[in-house]
Amino acid sequence: MLHKNPGRCKGAAGPYTENRSVILTEHDFSALPLKRQVSRYPGRNLPLHALTVLSGHSRETGPGYYNDCRLVTGPPYGVWQYTLSGRGCIESKDGRRDLLPGSLMIFPVPGQGVYYLPKDSDHWEFVFLVMIGREAVRIVRMIEQRLGNVFSTGKSPKTLGLLYAILSKLFAGNIPDPFANSSYTYRLCMMFLEETGESREIRSKHSFDNLRVFLKENLYRHIQVREMADCMRLSRSHFTRLFGEKMGMSPRMYLEDLRLKTAADLLAGEGATVKETAARCGIYDINYFCRRFKKHFGLSPGKYKTQGL
Q: Does domain 219-309 have CATH number 1.10.10.60?
């Protein structure tokens, strides 16, 4: 939302210009076009719990840039905003903070705070992502609760590199698939947690919940155990051992079980054919799918669908 500018940030003294204060990294964010990119996927049927729906590169110079997150209504979302030059300001439960070049703001909306271009700053240039989905919002809120809202990116080079890659791909229209978008969005969240020192705590408390979300959102494609291990930031051998201890089965067995149970839900609740259902669950050999399904449920997929179990 846009409102009249409330004034300068705490600690500011006199007019502030930052035209030459640009953080230089190996990723030239400033070369990205000044634009807002909406990511729409009208054909999406499955719910995705981490999805980037808006991205952009903006240079604000007017006094009207003022976002009051307390007044926002509607579904929640998360904002990631990385400052390139100039200065912005955020007011949250932790007080007022300047948003200077090299700082990353992560903020849940609706939320208890505002961010804006203060009167004594001649501009604020930044890139941003807007994420929706239950998992993305959960992670953003967790970050705020445990770590705050503003971070220096000096110790987060991988996060910064992935952010640049995502923006570049979105701007170029190279992420046309919602599942690929979801995978990138989730990876960015996990990369940030890893580099800020939270990965060990998250891994012990929520890791398999996060992995289940990843698998469900990517079920349509071939997923290797190596990719599961990478999602957990573990070696393959360590991941396989830990997974077996916690879940009581191998990762491959769990993935097949998840595919078959998802297929059963689709057959019982939607009008998709058996072949379409198998493909949506990542099994493209229809004969293999029918054999495994019957062994698991005691009925062929066709009979299961007909009986509406």
A: yes
